[in-house]
Amino acid sequence: MNMATTRMRTPQPHDLIWIDDPEAFVAGEPLPDWADAAWLARAPVVVRRDQASDGRIPVGLRGRSRAQRHAAWLTAAQCARVMSPDAIARQARWRDHPRLAEIPALRELSRVAPRLDDRQLEWGVTGAVGFALASDIDVLHRGSDVDLLISCPTALSDDETQWLGALIDGAYEARLDIQVATPFGAFALRERMRTGGRVLLKTATGPVLCADPWQPA
Fold first, then answer.
1. Which of 127, 144, 43, 50 is nearest to 88 (CA)?
2. What's the confidence (pLDDT) of residue 54?
3. Percentage above 70 pLDDT, the chain
4. Is 104 helix (H, G, I), strand (E, B) or coil?
5. Do 140 and 203 lie in a common domain?
6. Total number of domains constituting the chain
7. Residue 143 sits in which domain range?
8. Which pLDDT belongs to residue 202?
9. Would you name the residues annotated as active-site residues?
10. Which of 40, 124, 199, 206 could be 22's S-S partner, Cβ–Cβ 3.0 to 4.6 Å?
11. What is the value of pTM for the model shown?
């Protein structure tokens, strides 16, 4: 697999992690039947927002269907490879995906990716599309959404917010959802556009309702 990986990097929410020893992980965790060692040898887990006092990494396991989700914890020693959403975007594997003509989400991503690059935004692909592109496990269907993550250490300008909002509204091949990551957490751009400001900021210690996600109370 042509994989852009990062070693010794602190995993961030939405990163994908391949487990070093799936057999040992399965033996040490109470897991659903579908999350067996054979599946986890292929399928990465997704870093989620949570925290543990012992430094373990909060992850979510996903199977082939939406109903197959499970929260778990991973130690740094169990991380074989880490792949970030922006690394998935840089690979741009949707361009030659064998189901490009069949899956609307892949065509929508093909349409919006050059526009995001032109704006020089730091963006990445998450959700089912990101999982499928990174792992070569086909979990996509005609109703799949396009989930993107925009990293914004400083506040979006009004122009950038309006431009991204128009990008969401202009999606026609598949639903487009954008999460904006700030130094304190992440929020849904669609919600901010709807409310005009106040959003539910997802943080490692739980959701926070705030008017300014770059300066939460």
1. 127
2. 87
3. 96
4. helix
5. yes
6. 2
7. 85-210
8. 96
9. 145, 147
10. 40
11. 0.93
DSSP states of 151-173: E-SSPPPHHHHHHHHHHHHT--S
CA neighbours within 13 Å on the CB side: how many for 3? 19
Contact 129/10 with Cβ under 8 angstroms? no
Do 75 and 27 share a structural domain?
Answer: yes
pLDDT for 2 beyond 50: no
Residue 158 has pLDDT above 80, yes or no: yes
CB contact at 8 A, 196 and 173 = no
**54: buried, middle or exposed (CB in 10 Å: 19+, 13-18, 0-12)?**
exposed
- Supply the pLDDT for residue 3: 41
- What is the token pair recorded at 45? 């887990």
Do 117 and 171 lie in one domain? The reply is yes
**For helices 158-169 and 104-118, angle between their N-to-C axes, nearest 10 degrees:** 160
82 pLDDT above the threshold of 50 = yes
Residue with tokens 């914004």: 152
Q: What are phi and psi of 40, to 5 degrees?
A: -75, -15
Q: Which of 36, 52, 83 is the last residue of a domain?
A: 83
79: which strand partners? 19
